[in-house]
Amino acid sequence: MTTRNQNAGIAAALLGLAGGLFAWWKYNNATPEEKERLKSKVNDLGAKLKDSYTEVEDTVSDNLASLKNKLAKEKENISDEIEKVAS
Questions:
Q1: What span, in angstroms and rounded, lies between the C-alpha atoms of 54 and 65?
Q2: pTM here?
Q3: CB of 35 within 8 A of CB of 27?
Q4: From the CB of residue 68, how many other CB atoms can be counted at a distance below 10 Å?
Q5: Per-residue confidence (pLDDT) for residue 63, from 0 to 100
Q6: Over 90: is that where the pLDDT of 46 sits?
Q7: Where are the domains positioned within the chain?
């Protein structure tokens, strides 16, 4: 017996398959100009996605380096405090 979640998953899979088949049919029946326009649009979106990924990666790397520096400074401060207390 299938559950409600399984039925929803099956329905989503069938809708996805139907959408993919429709897109494939539409692309195969498109004119060369429409195909070129679609390829250009996909390439532009891919380039934007890559640029966004690179920006996020750079930001994360910068933030990680900053946090590492702060952690190193805090370790030094703690070591200094421990030495003061031990003296």
A1: 16
A2: 0.55
A3: yes
A4: 10
A5: 96
A6: yes
A7: 1-30, 31-87
